[in-house]
């Protein structure tokens, strides 16, 4: 099925006149504080190409991504397997009067919060790249049918595959296992050839305090996965997936200059000996002060995250590498509101259970409509008493600079 969809789309794109756009990016990351035997820096060349063809109510779209890491050109012991090419999206969409049908490979973005979107779970993350980059996601094959109402829409989505999550290898800084542990990227599924079905209802209200809302029900494979030793090989770990009934919502409400945000989910695990039913809730706000200097604006951001499991003697948040189980994020967003779309976002994450802290800031700006510059800084102070995901990563401090040309 997946191969047939890709062949049909490729054939149509080959003979169609399509619009092209994309970018070429050079990214440099330097690790000021890190484990001694891991890379001191990474230089990565990234390329992205989008192809779009539209005729009447038909849309054909493809998105191809590739990257080359400098370390992969060095001796074998220094390579980190971060060089690859990836077909992120390739789909056909047909719009009817009040409906739309889409078939193929695509990426969806769900959520409302600033620091992390706990409800953005349709596409797995690519583990070969920066763990803080929200855009590095794996496309999945799916069929979706959407009916549009006046101020809302209802979608039925069938996800056809659960992609393996490949991982960069040691000595890449964000390889989470010790050097003597290897990773087997062959995903172990509870049932083969099992699809995941979603029902998504979303919309907005035209009221005194406008609300954007989305409610999702899923019957299928959970986005949360867990690691376990490979059978007969305790020095190699693999990922496992399991089936759930999952209820999700993400919503925003505007009250004057304040945006109130909610993301929440509850997962009822169908049948897995290791994974408990769980909930994850995040509540936040962003209050904007306009014209703080000329046309500049300042956003004050606060977000609280809570993760909870409901069954004893099953995997806990530590074993699942959950980083936002009882955490508060406070931050600022400074927008220059100029022709360069320049902005600065930063803040602090405080973990109340394991006494961890994360500090970061990001600066982005455009020049001449074609050049984009990004600069970020991250500092992680991990737990000294518990084996958290950040503790496995180690005390961490990095600076990253990226320059991209968009066409």
Task: Summarize the helices and strands and which ones pair or pack.
Blueprint: H1 2-14, E1 19-33, E2 41-55, E3 58-69, E4 84-95, E5 99-106, E6 140-148, E7 152-159, E8 182-188, E9 196-204, E10 211-221, E11 226-230, E12 233-240, E13 243-255, E14 258-269, E15 278-293, E16 296-309, E17 326-335, E18 343-351, E19 356-367, E20 371-381, H2 389-393, E21 396-406
Features:
2 helices, Porin, 18-stranded antiparallel barrel, three-stranded mixed sheet, single chain, 56% strand, mainly beta, 21 strands, 407 residues
Note down, in words, how this protein is organized.
With 407 residues, the chain is mostly beta strands. Helices cover 4% and strands 56% of the residues. The protein has one domain: Beta Barrel (Porin). It has 2 helices and 21 strands. The strands form 2 sheets. The protein has an 18-stranded antiparallel beta barrel. Strand 19 (356-367) and strand 20 (371-381) form a beta hairpin. The longest helix has 13 residues, at 2-14. The protein is globular. It starts with a helix and ends with a strand.
